[in-house]
Amino acid sequence: MRGLLIRKLLSGLVAGGAVAALLSTGTSATAAPQDLKTVPFEVSGELPIYPKALWKNGSSGTNVRKVEARLVQLKLLEKRYLDNEFGTMTRSAVKKFQKSKGIPQLGYVDQNTWDQLAKVTHEPTQTELYPPVPVVNGKKLDARCATGVALCIDKSTRKLRYVVDGVVKMQLDVRFGAVKTATREGSFTVGWKSRNHVSKLYDSKMPYAMFFSGGQAVHYSSDFAARGYNGASHGCVNVRDLAKIKILFDQIHVGDKVIVYRS
Question: Which residues are catalytic?
Fold first, then answer.
């Protein structure tokens, strides 16, 4: 009997303690959790409802170019990224603009962001949207070389031109791959650089290599310097002027454009 009384007494103490703990914490139907986090927009259930994106990562077209041109006006985006494509750099510029205006840094353009951007910029001119194509010796270069930094490589004239914002800074003689190892044409970017590169595939030196398409790169070729156009590469863009490519190598950065075309 005595043991039963002790057990009842202990049960009462535990229950009382639990009630006291609940009362001391002020638990009620209206109490707010201490770890509640706010979100910038209306909430439905547990998920925030974000504003509709007008243009976002992956979008393309003329309207994207207009957004980019306005960001260029504000010096939030470099001219090289004025390309109709909403990519990483455009997204970064949009976030910088949103931060400057004290609005949520969504990284995409919603209606509010567009309204704010339009207020502080002017309607881009045709020249701002489509900078003039560089002209060399009375002949236009590829239009993709008109903005930003580009290695503009013309297979017809066998020339590589280092172009910055439409101005040709350097011109070099180049040669290309043979028929079975042709140098690919198109729009690329410098993926990586190697100052003292040696090809594992051909066991040949490729100093000052700037890779733009798989194993294809712009690099100095001692064979080109010695034999000229009597030889060919395995697909790379060979340069024979060692002094110039040394300078060029230090000017070019990963991400810069490489345009290989026929004029």
Answer: 219, 236
